[in-house]
Specification:
Elements lengths: L1 H6 L15 E5 L14 E9 L3 E9 L5 E8 L6 E5 L5 E8 L2 E8 L2 E10 L5 E9 L5 E10 L5
Antiparallel strand pairs: 1-2, 1-10, 2-3, 3-4, 4-5, 5-6, 6-7, 7-8, 8-9, 9-10
Protein backbone atom coordinates (compact mmCIF):
# COMPACT_ATOMS: atom_id res chain seq x y z
CA UNK A 1 0.00 0.00 0.00
CA UNK A 2 2.87 2.42 0.78
CA UNK A 3 4.15 2.06 -2.77
CA UNK A 4 0.72 2.86 -4.17
CA UNK A 5 0.43 5.96 -2.01
CA UNK A 6 3.87 7.28 -2.87
CA UNK A 7 3.31 6.70 -6.58
CA UNK A 8 -0.08 8.42 -6.63
CA UNK A 9 -0.34 11.93 -7.98
CA UNK A 10 -1.67 14.64 -5.69
CA UNK A 11 -5.41 15.14 -5.83
CA UNK A 12 -6.41 18.22 -7.79
CA UNK A 13 -9.18 20.48 -6.58
CA UNK A 14 -11.47 19.18 -9.33
CA UNK A 15 -11.08 15.51 -8.35
CA UNK A 16 -11.82 15.77 -4.63
CA UNK A 17 -15.33 14.45 -5.28
CA UNK A 18 -13.78 11.12 -6.29
CA UNK A 19 -12.09 10.57 -2.93
CA UNK A 20 -13.09 7.31 -1.22
CA UNK A 21 -12.56 9.12 2.12
CA UNK A 22 -15.92 10.86 1.71
CA UNK A 23 -18.56 9.53 4.07
CA UNK A 24 -19.39 9.00 7.72
CA UNK A 25 -16.88 7.23 9.95
CA UNK A 26 -17.19 6.00 13.54
CA UNK A 27 -14.19 5.51 15.83
CA UNK A 28 -13.54 2.07 17.27
CA UNK A 29 -12.86 3.56 20.73
CA UNK A 30 -11.20 0.29 21.77
CA UNK A 31 -8.30 1.11 19.45
CA UNK A 32 -7.33 4.17 21.51
CA UNK A 33 -4.15 3.63 23.53
CA UNK A 34 -5.60 4.82 26.84
CA UNK A 35 -7.52 3.32 29.76
CA UNK A 36 -11.23 2.71 29.00
CA UNK A 37 -12.35 5.29 31.59
CA UNK A 38 -10.33 7.97 29.72
CA UNK A 39 -11.71 7.16 26.26
CA UNK A 40 -14.57 9.07 24.67
CA UNK A 41 -17.84 7.18 24.42
CA UNK A 42 -18.18 7.99 20.73
CA UNK A 43 -16.35 9.86 17.97
CA UNK A 44 -17.92 10.43 14.56
CA UNK A 45 -16.10 11.91 11.61
CA UNK A 46 -17.72 13.06 8.38
CA UNK A 47 -15.90 14.07 5.21
CA UNK A 48 -17.50 15.39 2.04
CA UNK A 49 -16.61 17.34 -1.05
CA UNK A 50 -18.38 20.69 -1.44
CA UNK A 51 -18.42 23.51 -3.99
CA UNK A 52 -15.24 24.91 -5.51
CA UNK A 53 -13.24 21.73 -4.84
CA UNK A 54 -13.29 22.26 -1.09
CA UNK A 55 -13.45 19.60 1.61
CA UNK A 56 -15.88 19.77 4.54
CA UNK A 57 -15.09 18.02 7.81
CA UNK A 58 -17.43 17.56 10.77
CA UNK A 59 -16.23 15.89 13.97
CA UNK A 60 -18.43 15.02 16.94
CA UNK A 61 -17.04 13.65 20.20
CA UNK A 62 -19.11 12.41 23.14
CA UNK A 63 -17.02 12.18 26.30
CA UNK A 64 -17.47 10.00 29.39
CA UNK A 65 -19.72 12.66 30.99
CA UNK A 66 -21.96 12.67 27.87
CA UNK A 67 -20.73 16.16 26.90
CA UNK A 68 -20.62 16.64 23.13
CA UNK A 69 -17.75 18.51 21.50
CA UNK A 70 -17.73 19.26 17.79
CA UNK A 71 -15.70 20.93 15.09
CA UNK A 72 -16.55 22.01 11.55
CA UNK A 73 -14.29 23.23 8.77
CA UNK A 74 -14.46 23.75 5.02
CA UNK A 75 -11.02 23.93 3.45
CA UNK A 76 -9.19 24.05 0.15
CA UNK A 77 -6.95 21.01 -0.20
CA UNK A 78 -3.87 23.05 -1.05
CA UNK A 79 -2.62 23.58 2.51
CA UNK A 80 -4.10 27.08 2.83
CA UNK A 81 -5.12 27.69 6.45
CA UNK A 82 -8.83 28.10 7.13
CA UNK A 83 -11.10 28.64 10.09
CA UNK A 84 -12.74 25.91 12.14
CA UNK A 85 -15.75 26.44 14.35
CA UNK A 86 -17.28 24.52 17.21
CA UNK A 87 -16.54 23.54 20.78
CA UNK A 88 -13.48 21.33 20.21
CA UNK A 89 -10.03 22.87 20.74
CA UNK A 90 -9.27 23.84 17.15
CA UNK A 91 -9.88 27.20 15.47
CA UNK A 92 -7.51 27.05 12.48
CA UNK A 93 -6.59 24.14 10.24
CA UNK A 94 -5.07 23.29 6.89
CA UNK A 95 -5.43 20.20 4.69
CA UNK A 96 -3.84 18.44 1.74
CA UNK A 97 -4.88 15.25 -0.03
CA UNK A 98 -1.71 13.81 -1.62
CA UNK A 99 -3.66 10.80 -2.92
CA UNK A 100 -7.40 10.05 -3.14
CA UNK A 101 -7.13 7.71 -0.11
CA UNK A 102 -4.92 9.93 2.10
CA UNK A 103 -5.77 13.20 3.87
CA UNK A 104 -3.30 15.22 5.94
CA UNK A 105 -4.71 17.85 8.31
CA UNK A 106 -2.88 20.24 10.60
CA UNK A 107 -4.61 21.90 13.58
CA UNK A 108 -4.02 24.96 15.74
CA UNK A 109 -5.86 26.55 18.64
CA UNK A 110 -5.45 30.15 19.78
CA UNK A 111 -2.32 30.60 17.68
CA UNK A 112 -0.53 27.46 18.89
CA UNK A 113 -0.07 24.25 16.87
CA UNK A 114 -1.89 21.27 18.40
CA UNK A 115 -1.53 18.27 16.09
CA UNK A 116 -1.09 16.88 12.60
CA UNK A 117 -3.33 14.00 11.58
CA UNK A 118 -2.95 11.66 8.65
CA UNK A 119 -6.03 9.73 7.55
CA UNK A 120 -5.39 6.71 5.34
CA UNK A 121 -7.96 4.35 3.90
CA UNK A 122 -7.61 0.56 3.91
CA UNK A 123 -7.51 -1.22 0.57
CA UNK A 124 -11.06 -2.56 1.05
CA UNK A 125 -12.35 0.95 1.89
CA UNK A 126 -13.89 -0.15 5.20
CA UNK A 127 -11.32 1.16 7.70
CA UNK A 128 -9.85 4.61 8.10
CA UNK A 129 -6.66 4.86 10.14
CA UNK A 130 -5.94 8.15 11.86
CA UNK A 131 -2.33 8.75 12.87
CA UNK A 132 -2.01 11.80 15.11
CA UNK A 133 1.36 13.48 15.69
CA UNK A 134 1.55 15.99 18.54
CA UNK A 135 3.78 17.22 21.35
CA UNK A 136 3.30 16.39 25.02
CA UNK A 137 3.33 19.21 27.57
CA UNK A 138 7.05 18.62 28.20
CA UNK A 139 7.83 19.05 24.48
CA UNK A 140 8.32 15.36 23.75
CA UNK A 141 6.96 14.28 20.35
CA UNK A 142 4.23 11.65 20.49
CA UNK A 143 1.98 9.74 18.10
CA UNK A 144 -1.35 8.01 18.52
CA UNK A 145 -3.19 5.72 16.10
CA UNK A 146 -6.93 5.10 16.01
CA UNK A 147 -9.17 3.19 13.61
CA UNK A 148 -12.53 4.36 12.26
CA UNK A 149 -15.02 2.16 10.42
CA UNK A 150 -17.35 3.35 7.70
CA UNK A 151 -20.93 3.83 8.87
CA UNK A 152 -23.07 1.56 6.64
CA UNK A 153 -24.86 3.34 3.83
CA UNK A 154 -22.36 6.20 3.50
CA UNK A 155 -19.69 6.86 0.93
Amino acid sequence: MAAAISAAAPVSAGSVTASPLAGHWSLDVGTLPMPPQMRPKRVDLQFRAVADGKWKTHVEIVDQADKTLYSDSTLSLDGTPGQASGTYWVDTCAAKMPAPNVLVMQFAYQGAPTSTRVYSLSEDGKALTETEAYFKKDGTPAMRTAVFTRVPGTS
